[in-house]
Amino acid sequence: MLILNAFLMTTGHHEASWRYPKTQPERAHDIRHYQELAQLAERAKLDAVFLADGPALRQDIRHRVHSAFEPITLLTAVAVATERIGLISTASTSYYEPYNLARLFSSLDHISGGRAGWNIVTTAGLAAAQNFGLDAIPAHQSRYQRAREFVDVVLKLWDSWEDDAIVNDTAAGIYADDSRIHEVGHVGPEFQVKGPLNAPRSPQGHPVLVQAGSSEDGRGFAATYAEAIFTAHQTLASAQEFYADIKQRVATLGRDPAHVKVLPGLSPFIGSTEEGARALEREFNELTVPAYGLRQLKGLTGVDLSAHPLDGPVPADAFGDVESVEGAQSRFVLVLDIIDREKPTIRQLLHRLAGGRGHWVFAGTPEQVADHIERWFTQGAADGFNIMPPYLPGGLADFTEQVVPLLQRRGLFRTEYAGTTLRDHYGLPRPSSRYAESPARTA
Ligand SMILES: Cc1cc2nc3c(=O)[nH]c(=O)nc-3n(C[C@H](O)[C@H](O)[C@H](O)COP(=O)(O)O)c2cc1C
User: Fold this and answer.
1) Which of these, 11, 49, 225, 415, could form a disulfide with 18 (CB 3.0-4.6 Å)?
2) How far is the CA of 366 from the centre of ligand 1 (A)?
3) What is the mean pLDDT of the segment spanning 191-196?
4) Position in ligand 1 atom list of the atom nearest CA 232
């Protein structure tokens, strides 16, 4: 079955969504807004809601609703307003300590009854680095090296309690069998952590591990740790190449490729006719502010085109080599690919990125959106999608009310939740603790 997440963002993924009359920018800091969006996604039986994050006020707040709640805190409030939908939060391995983050996600998994997922990012932006005592972005490779050790420590901490450590024997006065609670004793280049975690093993064994980097370092990291991979692709061919490469790398490492889900982003503009959908997309693009788009392009690629005429061609020679990029390498490559293939003016390029920052933006009828999803799913390009509504709540309602029923009728998507945890929804096994004498239980 297809996997479908709702990638939530204040007023929607299109950078001008907050100016569109049907959105509610005044509710960007109202928890009920996010609870209602998650309930809408849960009614359609979607797998999870996902929140991106960066520990900095990113880009240009002047022209867009960019401030947001810390996502684990937000999703905890969503957990008590929902029952089945998965809750995936982003958190950075560059700007957290493993012990603190292990506690936060373990708590979310307990509080939600086993619905937590962690989108592991190394945070590519300078603004975040400057909030943690740095003057420059840590090098791309070293960010991933730290991330590997970080995740190793977190996994040890999540394993530090065996499933049946709590005995609760009030008669004997024994609450926990401490022979089943283990120090992790991690000593490594970046971290030294004694452990154990101060919380019992969570309902899923541990939260689902998600990752979102597509560079060589990113792919290596994903193949080692990820159970789901978020990615951005502009063509079926590039998505198929990524999909095949990841599945191969996973198999080479002795992992089961079926237990690593590849989920590209898709931002659908839905209309009763194709022309209607395209007109809606144009309406959003006409609401954009070029100063914002230019700044976003600089954030994605490091290249500032503000001195060039907007309706002139993109000076392709302005973009250096990917190796020189310490930020988001795969996004840099993706933007270069658009420039190469479409030869856009600067304004056209900004419009191409306005809807999804490089993710696939598709305008069409519900049938055409369902066809697109079915094509990528059946042709080895995706195990599912991160649906990125261009505007909220309307864009998510359009998708859940008009596209999901088509996918259900085609037998591609569930009509009822079969399980209660995110692992159940994704079809992933429940890991046992590495410290357990004999694996307590596997799914
Ligand atoms: C769907 C998706 C969601 C992402 N969410 C975040 C995020 O919340 N915070 C963040 O810092 N980076 C986020 N990223 C960026 C990645 O973490 C990573 O920096 C980027 O994909 C480049 O990785 P690479 O240099 O390995 O290619 C996201 C990427 C994708 C595809």
Assistant:
1) 11
2) 28
3) 98
4) 31
